[in-house]
Amino acid sequence: MNPATTATVSHRRTRVGAGRPVGAVPTALLLIGALYCLFPVLWVLIAATKSPAELFTTSTLAFGTGLLDNIAELFAYRDGVFWLWAGNTLLYAGGGALLSTAVSAISGYTLAKYRFPGRDVIFSLLIGGVLVPAVVLAIPQYLLFSRIGLADSYWAVLLPQVLHPYSIYLARVYAGAAIPDSLLEAGRIDGAGEWRLMSRVAMPLMVPGMVTIFLFQFVAIWNNFLLPFIMLGDDGKFPLTVGLYTLLVSGANQPALYNLILTGAFLSLVPLIALFLTMQRYWKTDLSSGAVK
Amino acid sequence: MRPSQRGAWPYLFLTPAIVLFTLFLAVPIGYTVYLALRRTKVSGLGLGRGARREVYVGFDNFAAALADAELWSGWLRVLGYGSLVLVVMLGLALLFALMLDSARVRLARFSRIAIFLPYAVPGVAATLLWGFLYLPSLSPIRDVLDVDFLGATTVTYSMANVAVWGGVGFNMLVLYTTLRAIPRDLYEAARLDGASELQIAVRVKIPLLGPAIVLTTVFSIIATIQVFTEPTTLRPLTNTISSTWSPLMKVYRDAFVTGDLYSAAATSIVIAAISLVLSFGFLRVVRNHAFREG
C-alpha cells in the first residue's frame, strides 16, 4: 500500500471513526431486536426436530432426530386433518385476498377517477368501516349467516373478509397516482367504453398496487382467528389458526401431544415466511401511503 | 364526451363494494343495536309457545354492562396490558426505524427483515411459541432466568411481550418507510447548522414522523382494546387467565357459551364506543398539543 492510499484510508477512518459511537450503538440495538424477533422462530424449528423422548431430555437448543417422524405423525393425526386445515387456510386466504383485491382495485379506481353525485358520501362510508371493531360485527354476522343457513360454511369465513376499507383507500391513492387522466381521455376519444377502459387500461396500470393489497389481505386472512373461531363448528372446515388452537386445547395437559403442536406450529409458519421473504420488496411500496399525508 | 353516457358506470363499478358494505357492515351493525335494546322475557314457567318473548328493554343491557364488575376488571386488565404494549411496542418501533435510517448502521437489511418477520406469524402461532417458551419444562429461557412467566401478575407482561413481538416490525416498517420519503437534503441542512445525529433524530425526524406515529398509535389502540387471540390461546397453558380476562372474551362467552346474545351485543357496542372515544380523543389531544407549532 503506497503512502498516498494509506493517508486517504486513515483520513477516511478518522472521519468514520468520529461517528463510530453512533454507528456501533444503532447496529447493536438493531441486532438485539433481530435476535429477539428470530429467537422463537428458531426455537420452534429446533423443537420440531425433536422426538417425544428428546423434547424433555435434550438441551432445549440442540437439534433432535425426530423431524420426519413428527411430520408423519402430524399428517396421520386424525386421518390427516392437518392437511385439511392447511388447504382450508389456503382457500380462505388465497380466495379471500383475490376477491378483496379485485373489489378494492375497482372501487379505488372509480373513486379516484370519476366525478359523480354521492362520491364523497360513499367514500366516507366505505372508509369509516376501518373504525368499526371486528367484535361488533362478528356476532351479528354469525347470526345472519345462521339465519340463512350459511353459518359453519366456507362462505361464512370467506365473504365477510372481502370488503377491506383500508385496501380501498390504498387503491384509491394508488389509482390517483398511477393512472393519468389523459390516458383515459385518449381512450374515450378512440371510442373505448368505460368497462374496456377499466379492464384494459386502468387495471393493468394498477397491478403493482394490487400486489401489495393482495399480500396484506392474504396475511390478514391467514392470521385471522376470531372470525373462523366464531363461524365454524365443524373442524374439517377450520383454518390452521383455529386448528392449532384446538390442538393446543386438547394437548395442554398431554405432553405426548407437544411434539405435534410444535411441529404443527412450525409447519404453519413455513409457507407464510417463504411468501414473506420472496415478496419482501413489495411490503415497502405503499405501506405508508396512508401515513405520509 | 357526454358525461351522461358515463352516468351509471361509477355506480356499477362500486356495486360489489356497496353490496358487501350493506350486507357485512351496515346490516350487522343495525342488528347489534337492535339486539342490544332487547331481551328475552319469560312469562309463567317458561313453558309452551309464547312463554319466551323478546321484548324491548331500552338501555337496560347497557346499564348492566356498565355495572358489571367482571367486565370492569377486564377493562382494567386490558388498560394495563394495552398501555404496556403501546408504549413498549411503539417506542421500540420508533427506535428501530430511526436506527435503520441512520447512515452508519451495519447489517441494516438483515435486521429489518428479521424484525419484520413476526408479522408473518399468526397471533395463535406466536402465542403458542411464546407459551411453550414460558413453560418450565421446555423453555431455554427458564434455564437461565428463574421467573414464573405464567403467574398471576407476570402473565400480563408475558402476554404484552407476545403482542410487542408480533407488532413491533410492522410499526417499524411504517415509520421507516415514512422516514425514507423525507428529502435527504433536510438532514444535510441540519448537519450544516451543526446538529448532531441525535439532535436531527429528535428535532427533525420525529416531528416529521408525527402523522405516521399518530396513525400507528390509533391502529394499535383499536387492536389492544379488542385483544382476544393471545389470552384465548394462552389460556390452556395456565390457570391464571380467566374466560373473561378481556372484554372481548366476555362478549364471546356471553354470546356463545352462556347464550346471552343481548348482553353480548350491548357489551360489544360499549367496546366499539370506547375504541372510538379513545381513538378520537387521542387524535384530538395530539392535534391540540403536538402539532400546534407546525
TL;DR of this structure?
The complex is a heterodimer of chains A (293) and B (294). With 293 residues, chain A is mainly α.
How many separate structural domains of chain B?
A: 1
Q: What are the segments of chain A in which pLDDT stays under 50 over at least 5 consecutive residues?
A: 1-20, 288-293
Care to count the β-strands of chain A? 0
Number of helices of chain A: 16
Largest beta-sheet details of chain B: 2 strands, antiparallel
Helix content of chain A: over 70%
Strand proportion of chain A: under 5%
* CATH class categorisation of the largest domain in chain A: Mainly Alpha
CATH second-level architecture of chain B? Orthogonal Bundle
Assign the CATH superfamily of chain B: MetI-like
Transmembrane segments (chain B): 12-37, 78-101, 113-135, 155-176, 208-228, 261-283
Domain ABC transmembrane type-1 (chain B): 75-282
InterPro entries (chain B): MetI-like, MetI-like_sf, UgpAE/MalFG_permease
Protein name (chain B): Putative ABC-type sugar transport system, permease component
